[in-house]
From TrEMBL:
Organism: Agrobacterium salinitolerans
Name the UniProt record assigns to this protein: FAD-dependent oxidoreductase
Domain annotation BFD-like [2Fe-2S]-binding: ranges: 378-430
Keywords annotated in UniProt: Oxidoreductase
One Pfam family matching this protein: Pyr_redox_2
Length: 473
C-alpha cells in the first residue's frame, strides 16, 4: 500500500528526530521512521518497560525530552519500521518499509537520511568468544535493559566511550578489571583546546576518569588487548603496550575477567545515502567514508538531505543541531523561508562539531592497529573467514571490496558487512600499497535490512496463481 508524506525521515536519533520536528514546525506533514521501538537513537535509547523506575541518567533526561516533543508534535512516528529500499522517483523518493510483518511504500517529496553510525572493532584472536561485546554496543545494554556485560569486565578501546562504559559498569554495581586504551595521556591533552568549547562535557569526562582512578581501577594507557582467552566464555585477556603507531610491543601481560567490552571508534553508516544515489568521499577525521553533502545537510539531489553521525562522527550534540538544519533545508526545498533560522543555528553547530570531531580524532586508526589481527583471527564472523582467507583472496586478484564480497561472501551475511567491512577495506589498502581512500565500500544492494520473503509476497490465495497450460507434446 502506498502512503504519502511531504517529508520522510529515516532514523529517530538526535539528528533525525530534530530534523522531523523542524520541518513539521513549518507546517509540513512529516513521517519519522525508525526500527527501534522509541525515539532517541543510540545515545538516548529509551529504557525498556521493565526498568522504567531506574534512576534517570543525563541520557534518559535528554531522550525523554525529545520523545515528549515528538509525541506533542504533528510528526507521525513509525516505530519498529525498517527501511529496506529507497527509490528516487518523480517529485521525491519512495521508501520501502517493513513493519508488523508487512512491506509498505511511503512516497515523500523530501527525504532526510539520519541513519547514524556503527561501531568498528579491530578483530583480535578470540574476539568472537561469548562474553565479548562492542564498546558502544554495551551502552545499549545499560540504557535499555540495565544489564551488565558480566561480573568482572575488561573495558578496552579508544576515545571517551571507554571511560563512559567503565564508569557506568561501576555505577551499576559491576566490577571493572581494567581499562585498556590505545590512547595516551598526551593524545587527550592535545584535545583540551577543542574540549574547552564544552566545559560541561569536559567535566563529565573528568568525573568518569576520577571515579576509576579513586576506586583503584588500573588504567593502561597506550595499550591494547591482543588476545581473548576462553573457549566457550571469556576467562581473561592478553594485552600489550603499543608503539606510537599502535603496533604491539614488549611483554604480553594478562588479566582475568568474564567479559570484555571492545571498540575502536565509530564509522558513519552510508548505505541508505548510497542507495539514494549519493556519492562518497573519504574523511578519516570524520570516521571514514561519508556521503557527499553540502551546507545544512543539502546534497546534489535537491529532494534528499542528510544529517547526524551518518555524515561524519561529530557526536550527539552536533547531531541535534545538524538535524534541525537539515529539517529546515527540507522545509526550504518545499517552499518555506528558513534562511534566518539556519543562519542563527550554524554557529551553534560549528561549536558542537568542533568538540565531537576532536573526540573522533582519538579513534583515528594508526598503521599498527591492523597488526592486532593475526592470520588466524576471524575477520568476517558471519561467514567464519579468517584474515588469512581474505588475504589469499586479495592476492588472487580481488582488489576491491566488491571483489572480496563476491568471491568470499564477506559482508553478505546477516550483519551486512557491519562488523567486517572496515577491516576488509584496510586489508585491501595494505595489500595493494594504497590508502583507505583508494578502497571504497561495496556497492549497497537492497534489502538494507533483512526482509522475510513472505512480507514481500503479501497475502495471496494459491488457487489464484496462474498455472500455465502444459506445453503441447
Ligand atoms: C551502538 C552505539 C552506541 C552509542 N552510544 C553512545 C553513547 O552512549 N554516548 C554517546 O555520546 N554517543 C554514543 N554513540 C554515538 C551516537 O550514536 C551519536 O553521536 C548520536 O547518537 C548520533 O545521532 P544520530 O541521530 O546521527 O544517529 P543515531 O542516534 O545512531 O540514530 C540513527 C537511528 O537510525 C535508525 N536507523 C538506521 N537505519 C535504519 C533503517 N534502515 N530503517 C529504520 N531505522 C534505521 C537507527 O535505529 C537509529 O535509531 C553510540 C553509537 C553507537 C553506534
Amino acid at each position: 500500500m502506498m502512503h504519502n508524506s511531504d517529508v520522510a525521515v529515516i532514523g529517530a536519533g538526535p539528528a533525525g528526530a530534530n530534523a522531523a520536528l523542524a520541518a513539521a514546525r513549518h507546517g509540513f506533514s512529516v513521517t519519522l521512521i525508525d526500527e527501534q521501538p522509541r525515539v532517541g537513537g543510540q545515545v538516548w535509547r529509551a529504557k525498556s518497560a521493565a526498568i522504567l523506575e531506574a534512576p534517570a541518567t543525563p541520557e534518559t533526561v535528554a531522550g525523554n525530552r525529545l520523545r515528549q516533543e515528538v509525541d506533542e508534535s504533528s510528526v507521525t512516528h513509525l516505530s519498529e519500521a525498517r527501511v529496506w529500499q529507497i527509490e528516487r522517483c518523480e517529485g521525491g523518493a519512495n521508501l520501502y518499509l517493513l513493519r508488523q510483518g508487512r512491506s509498505d511504500v511511503l512516497h515523500a517529496r523530501a527525504l532526510i537520511i539520519a541513519t547514524g553510525a556503527r561501531e568498528f572493532v579491530q578483530p583480535v584472536p578470540g574476539w568472537t568468544t561469548p562474553g565479548v561485546l562492542g564498546l558502544a554496543g554495551a551502552t545499549a545494554l545499560f540504557k535499555q535493559e540495565l544489564v551488565l556485560p558480566g561480573k568482572r569486565t575488561v573495558v578496552s578501546g579508544t576515545g571517551p566511550l571507554v571511560f563512559y562504559v567503565a564508569s557506568e559498569i561501576r555505577r551499576l554495581g559491576g566490577e571493572v578489571a581494567a581499562v585498556i586504551t590505545p590512547n595516551s595521556r598526551g593524545d587527550w591533552l592535545r584535545c583540551l583546546p577543542a574540549m574547552a568549547s564544552r566545559p560541561d562535557l569536559l567535566l563529565r569526562g573528568g568525573r568518569w576518569i576520577a571515579d576509576l582512578v579513586l576506586s583503584g581501577v588500573p588504567i593502561y594507557w597506550r595499550h591494547a588487548v591482543t588476545r581473548v582467552e576462553g573457549e566457550t566464555q571469556v576467562t581473561g585477556v592478553e594485552f600489550r603496550k603499543l608503539t606510537a603507531d599502535w603496533s604491539p610491543t614488549g611483554a604480553v601481560r594478562r588479566i582475568e575477567g568474564d567479559s570484555l567490552c571492545l571498540g575502536n571508534g565509530l564509522t558513519p553508516t552510508t548505505e541508505a545515502a548510497q542507495l539514494a544515489g549519493l556519492g562518497l568521499e573519504h574523511s578519516p577525521r570524520l570516521g571514514g567514508w561519508i556521503p557527499l553533502h553540502g551546507v545544512d545537510g543539502t546534497t546534489d539531489i535537491a529532494s534528499i538531505f542528510l544529517c547526524g553521525d551518518g555524515t561524519g562522527i561529530r557526536g550527539s550534540t552536533a547531531a541535534e543541531v545538524h538535524g534541525r538544519l537539515a529539517g529546515l533545508s527540507a522545509a526550504e526545498h518545499l517552499g518555506a523561508d528558513t534562511k534566518g533560522e539556519r543562519d542563527r543555528l550554524r554557529a551553534v553547530y560549528e561549536r558542537a562539531a568542533r568538540f565531537g570531531t576532536a573526540m573522533t580524532g582519538l579513534s583515528l586508526p594508526r598503521a599498527g592497529l591492523a597488526r592486532l589481527t593475526t592470520d588466524e583471527t576471524i575477520v568476517c564472523r558471519c561467514e567464519s573467514l579468517s584474515r588469512a582467507d581474505i588475504v589469499a583472496e586479495i592476492s588472487s586478484g580481488a582488489g576491491s571490496t566488491n571483489a572480496v564480497k563476491s568471491g568470499l561472501r564477506a559482508g553478505m551475511g546477516p550483519c551486512g558487512g557491519k562488523f567486517c567491512q572496515t577491516a576488509v577495506s584496510r586489508m585491501i589498502a595494505e595489500a595493494e600499497g594504497g590508502g583507505e581512500a583508494d578502497v571504497p565500500p561495496p556497492t549497497p544492494r537492497p534489502p538494507l535490512r533483512p526482509v522475510p520473503v513472505e512480507a514481500l509476497a503479501g497475502d495471496f490465495n494459491y488457487s489464484d496463481l496462474p498455472i500455465p497450460k502444459p506445453a503441447p507434446l
